[in-house]
Amino acid sequence: MIQPIEIADIFDRARILQRARRALPLIVIGGLAAAASAFAVSRTLPPVYRATAQLYVSPSTNSTLALQDVILGQNLARTYAQMATAEVVLRPAMDKLGRADIGAFQDRTEVSQLRDTSIVNIAFKDNDPQRAADAANAIADSFIQQSRVLLTTTQVSTATQLDTQIASLQGEVSALEAQVKAAQTELAAPPAPTRTPVPAARVAVLQQQIADAGATKLAKEQTIAALTKTRDDVRLATTRSDNTVTLWQAAVAPADPESPHVVLNSLAAGLLGMLVALAAVAGLAYLDDRVRDADEVRSRLGLPLLAQIHAGLQPGSIAGKLFVRDHPNSAEAEAFRSLRTNILFADVDNRPRSIVVTSALPNEGKSVISANLALAFAEAGTPTVLIDADLRRPSQHRLFRVPVTYGLTNILTASAANTDLARFRLSASLVLIPSGPLPPNPAQLLGSARMSEFLRELDRAIPGAVIVIDTSPTLAVADAIVLAARSDGCLVVVDAGRTHARAARHAIDSISRVRANILGVVLNKISDQESYYYQRYSYYGRPATTTEQGARSSVTK
Hints:
By secondary structure, this protein is an alpha/beta fold. It contains 20 helices and eleven strands.
């Protein structure tokens, strides 16, 4: 019965850990390779030294600083940090050091403010530690000189602006004085005998003009006095003040290079290499949909796993693959006995009498599975008939080394209904019917009424027999689908290292559409790393002895 596929099964914790364990050597190798490459490259890089000079920025020259002065100093430090890399600052330092490339000099210069302080760091990088220290100190000296020039220029400009304002106000005061004097003269002049006396209204106007002009003059004189004091203070500060930027700590030649960090680079590259390898493994695992273990059979195919068969020493050959007969104590023989038991107990009330064995694609080992399953039933004393119904690429005659000149195709095309089974008997419990000559129309022959009649004839001739039918791959031709519809059960063989889940699901869907009873999946050709089954039962991995082979060989003789 096909089980529903759950999304949670795809992310099963055990399966994820198993994949991680398999990929661990690759991940470690990737990390070591990246670390070795980073170590080699870092050793070849020239050392780079970093020297740092520190400047202190003060907003005033007062001996006592208020809180607002400290905050202003921090703001000035941020501004100065942006100005320190200007060409006007770097050019004098370059001239002092004999440097010519302004672009390269700027690239090696780093200026920053020490957080929440009035300290400005001026750093310079060079391959020589002493040159780095000399360059940092030269840039600091140049910046101190340029800040002094900037401060002086600003103060002189302020004083000049104040002089202009004072001169303009003094001119306005002189004009007001002239206006007052003219009004006073007009009021004080003695009337001539021939002149008309100043009217009373005119006298009032002149007196009001004198009062207004006097008030305006007084206000402007006060403003002139304040501006004059400010100008004098600025000139005095310019004369007495020191520079607001001072050298806090001079740069010294560093003892150790800033880069390259050989150890750190190697560790970082190793970690990155492991992450890249892990990502590559994860990507390949996501793209690779091959069915490799029991968990993937259940999660990707939705069918029960009936057996896991080891790959053996020669997984690509059919020689020596009759494990139940030739190596009865091997892990493979025990796996086929477990397969036999699982089939019998899959449905106790309706045990399958005819079992079709197929696969999605060729070369997945279905013929070896069919042969050993038949041997396992015969070994238990169950009458067993093994039919090679793969009429395109038969293999049972090569596995058992029997003639192929007469077989299934001869029986199906013969006119007589009764078949002489004695010629096909290999032992008291096992009958092998090879394919016979290959016909031009295998599907038509297997789907004929004669094939159904032959299966019923076998049931009558050998009561209680189990019929194992080896068929062609499902996706290659329709032979297996025809026989699966007429059987009691069907086994789907999956190659653990080759079969893709998509192909297996397509084959399962094709069989299910004819209402065939799919018993489950046989996972074939698994490696020791794919399953812990053979690690736990390594006792069975030893080869069979001569005595054991003789005791078991009676089932095929």
